[in-house]
């Protein structure tokens, strides 16, 4: 029986039926305390990243990200409502995209009100590594636009409330993922809702998501 995959959470999982990828921000003084075996992602979160610490943090990230249990780089990304000016955030993200390309590990991305900048950055760098946009909660036109640019989408608690998310999930045509992020919602509840939307069983959905994941991780 497949596990539930929670592709992006900030909490440590205590459920044996859930494979959770815990997301850690490099700026949390993580260097010595980083878990060595359980699956994680690490990166410089746009809320906390500082451009004048970028060189130092990239040195650490360059070492840590090579560990086998680091499945993705991130979360990293762009946020026009928090953190340093967008130009600084673009530079910090660029450094992490280049590292992900070098290590051939997918990116888990945070994006608030900066989709144009994100798309432009992907094009400019010619990045080929999978880019998963986490916590997708926008209109279906935006989902279409992002998928057309090669992004994968991950969905969290918003699927429980939003009819728009049901529409997006019905139209989805690229590998997608499910997550709890920092919410208290159970990943099982999110799977149940998405299975209902897609008119398949929860077990079938688990297989779909794991196949999506295998497609991305090389
Ligand atoms: Zn997050």
Strand order of the largest sheet: 1-2-3-4-5-6-7-8
CATH architecture term: Alpha-Beta Barrel
Number of domains: 1
Q: Which topology does CATH recognise?
A: TIM Barrel
Name the shape in a single word: globular
Write a structural description.
This protein is of the alpha/beta class and 218 residues long. It has one domain (4-216): Metal-dependent hydrolases (TIM Barrel), CATH 3.20.20. It is 39% helix and 20% strand. The chain contains 7 helices and 8 strands, in the order E-E-E-H-E-H-E-H-E-H-E-H-E-H-H. The chain has helices spanning 54-64, 86-103, 115-125, 140-148, 163-171, 187-198, 202-216; strands at residues 4-9, 18-25, 40-43, 70-79, 107-112, 131-133, 152-155, 176-178. Strands 1-2-3-4-5-6-7-8 form an 8-stranded parallel β-sheet. Strand 3, helix 1 (54-64) and strand 4 form a beta-alpha-beta unit. Helix 2 (86-103) packs across helix 3 and helix 6 crosses helix 7. The longest helix has 18 residues, at 86-103. The chain is globular, with a radius of gyration of 16 Å. The two termini are 22 Å apart. The chain binds zinc ion. Zinc ion binds next to loops.
Topology readout:
Elements (H helix, E strand, L loop, with lengths): L3 E6 L8 E8 L14 E4 L10 H11 L5 E10 L6 H18 L3 E6 L2 H11 L5 E3 L6 H9 L3 E4 L7 H9 L4 E3 L8 H12 L3 H15 L2
Parallel strand pairs: 1-2, 2-3, 3-4, 4-5, 5-6, 6-7, 7-8
Helix pairs in contact: 2-3, 6-7
Bound molecules: zinc ion.
Keywords summarizing the entry:
alpha/beta, TIM Barrel, 7 helices, globular, binds zinc ion
């Amino acid at each position: 029986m497949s596990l539930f995959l929670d592709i992006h959470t900030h909490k440590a999982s205590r459920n044996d039926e859930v494979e959770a990828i815990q997301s850690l921000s490099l700026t949390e003084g993580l260097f010595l305390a980083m878990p060595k075996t359980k699956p994680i992602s690490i990166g410089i979160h746009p809320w906390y990243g500082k451009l004048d610490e970028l060189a130092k943090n990239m040195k650490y990230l360059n070492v840590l990200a090579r560990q086998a249990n680091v499945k993705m780089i991130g979360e990293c990304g762009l946020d026009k409502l928090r953190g340093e000016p967008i130009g600084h955030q673009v530079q910090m993200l660029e450094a992490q995209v280049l590292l992900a390309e070098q290590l051939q590990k997918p990116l888990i991305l945070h994006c608030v009100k900066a989709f144009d900048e994100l798309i432009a950055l992907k094009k400019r760098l010619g990045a080929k590594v999978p880019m998963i946009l986490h916590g997708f909660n926008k209109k279906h036109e935006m989902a279409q636009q992002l998928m057309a640019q090669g992004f994968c989408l991950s969905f969290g608690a918003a699927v429980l409330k939003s009819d728009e998310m049901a529409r997006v999930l019905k139209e989805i045509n690229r590998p997608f993922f499910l997550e709890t992020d920092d919410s208290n919602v159970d990943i099982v509840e999110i799977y149940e809702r998405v299975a209902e939307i897609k008119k398949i069983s929860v077990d079938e959905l688990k297989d779909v998501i794991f196949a999506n994941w295998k497609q991305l991780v090389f």
